[in-house]
Design brief:
homodimer, alpha+beta, 2 domains, three-stranded antiparallel sheet, 8 helices, elongated
Chain lengths: 365, 365
């Protein structure tokens, strides 16, 4: 006998295939198995009723046994399965126990649900809901920056108190929270912090420097993400940063026009890089660190904030219809700050690249 | 040669040992190795500067190579290590690649950092900061419930709109967010939803029924959690729920008095159960599901919201000084609703059980 089943274990937030395959998500570990068209989700007694309500049609819901091992053994015995296909992220401890119980474990080299890259209309709609929340958060940030005053030392002041990245982030996140979103690590990075793409920002914000607003909420209800970046300045930006902004905006728009069925992601990335270079913005590394455009142009978005397809220099797989990707060129200079502008694009079945983002572009506010 | 090193891989939120051991956390995967007193953290170029700043003294920070496999090979070669001890949750894909490269992989049966259960004063202080934020969130919920009116159909109305669990949760979470917290899955469950301990609550809230407020924020800065539950009623609770509240309150306080060095967690749980039974509240399961007190009395809290020691019927390991645990008995009846009251207790080095929670107890508001 050599009958296979896919096996997934984890919580629905960190192992998003679980949510995709079962329709169910829980903060605690649960289990999913699939053999051909047979699908089964095993959850704790505490989650059973909720799982029955939210599981996709055709997914049987069971209660877990005393351990994951026992649960898998029971389902596998019912189905006559002896080989389990697991993702590379599957916990090694459970894998070893399953081997000890006589199962053959196969580690999938490729995504178990490659169809996740190609969104159904219902999924695109869920992404749009999260993106609209990101836009509401971004508008709130800009509103607060507009309301703030510039102190003589060029720091920003909002309602009699210094305006910090932390306060601005709380305003953005609260706006999104009230729209049913979960927001973690929202970036509101000003001054030279904006030159580090992952710096979420801390401390008092400054006039005249760009503030990078990278906002990526996940819907608590659906699990789908939105992703948006705008960069704004309160006050008077340097000529260098003005030119950088214009270059990034042109790169984003040109890259957008390159997104079509059959286009090669690495070439789209290269196009954006070329526009930036044409404007005199080169990429490299010196004693102060990386500078220029040193991350990938974009990435797929769905139940994971970063998923395929990557619009990166290393992806040569032609684009297909159905993908939802970000288009987010940036320029970063350790002694000047950073600029990033990010839209989301849906490549629909007719091969048209639809910009999902509605947020306006404005640098000086 | 048989020289061992601990190996951890993941992001600092889901693999909290990474944060504990290195002092650093990142939303993307990074790597930590420890062999005796040698400790090394390997992060992407994007995170390098931040890692250098936040890593604990004695932790060397390196840049990751093209893959985790290559990074591990380089560090292991430098250290002369050929055996890697990994947690059971370690990804099987990387474990297999490491085996293929000649490493022996040992899966730890026990926690790699058992000292995590025993908090340093600095850790207790971080937990208290998060707990105070939870209390601020809880007070905000009670304020909103107090401000709300009861419509003729006994639904709650706040500022001209129906008061839903979602709106109440947003008020709680926004309060905590402004205090630097991350809050996910905050429970504001009213009506019969409160009878399901994991139900976060949805829809319009009702007068006369208990609303379970289970609030557990994590500090964005430190990663430590707070955990608090209060149950309140707007309007007039049933006599049954009034008696249930009193029983749960007595059980919580009695259990608290049992927390001491050498006490057996399963016996403390049993004490709480006995108090509830003495008041006539039994535990069981019928056609409507579980009822009574059907979860563990409490759990340790630190960089994980649920960690050791468990105050559960299955833990017979005597308590030691330094633990921070929750004490959270509850009563749940599918046709009546739920009551849960949760404090946090620190068993200090003098063997004194210190209640960290300052939030008052009040049922009818």
């Amino acid at each position: 006998m050599n009958k296979k089943a896919i096996l997934l274990v984890g919580d629905g937030v960190s192992v998003t295939d679980l949510r995709y395959a079962s329709g169910f998500s829980a903060p605690d570990d649960f289990l999913f198995m699939q053999s051909g068209t047979r699908k089964c989700c095993a959850v704790s007694a505490l989650e059973y009723n909720r799982a029955v309500t939210s599981a996709l049609p055709g997914v049987e819901v069971r209660r877990t046994h005393s351990s994951h091992l026992e649960t898998v053994k029971t389902i596998a015995a019912d189905w006559g399965v002896d080989t389990l296909t697991v993702p590379g992220s599957f916990p090694v401890g459970l894998a070893e126990k399953l081997k000890g119980a006589g199962f053959t474990i196969e580690i999938a080299e490729q995504p178990l649900y490659p169809e996740r890259e190609f969104k159904k209309i219902s999924e695109v709609q869920k992404i749009i809901v999260s993106l609209r929340a990101a836009e509401a958060g971004c508008r709130r940030a800009i509103e607060v920056l507009k309301e703030s005053d510039i102190a003589p030392d060029r720091t920003l002041v909002w309602g009699n108190a210094p305006l910090t990245s932390e306060i601005l982030r709380a305003e953005v996140d609260c706006t999104m929270l009230r729209l049913g979103m979960i927001a973690v690590d929202t970036i509101c990075a000003g001054g030279l912090q904006g030159a580090q793409p992952h710096n979420t920002g801390s401390g008092v914000l400054l006039a005249d420097y760009p503030v990078v607003l990278d906002i990526f909420p996940r819907s608590a209800a659906t699990g789908y993400w939105g992703d948006l970046t705008r960069t704004v300045v309160k006050g008077t930006p340097s000529d260098f940063m003005r030119r950088a902004y214009d270059a990034v905006l042109e790169a984003r728009e040109f890259a957008k026009s390159c997104i079509k069925i059959g286009a090669i992601p690495s070439e789209i990335h290269k196009c954006a890089e070329n526009i930036l270079a044409k404007h005199g913005f080169s990429t490299g590394c010196d004693e102060k660190g990386d500078y220029g455009f040193f991350h990938g142009l974009g990435h797929g978005v769905g139940l994971d904030i970063h998923e395929g397809p990557r619009l990166s220099p290393r992806n040569s797989e032609p684009l297909k219809a159905g993908v939802v990707v970000t288009d987010e060129p940036g320029l970063y200079y350790p002694d000047q700050g950073g600029i990033r502008l990010e839209d989301m694009i849906y490549l629909n079945d007719e091969g048209k690249a639809v910009t999902l983002t509605e947020m306006e572009d404005q640098f000086v506010i």
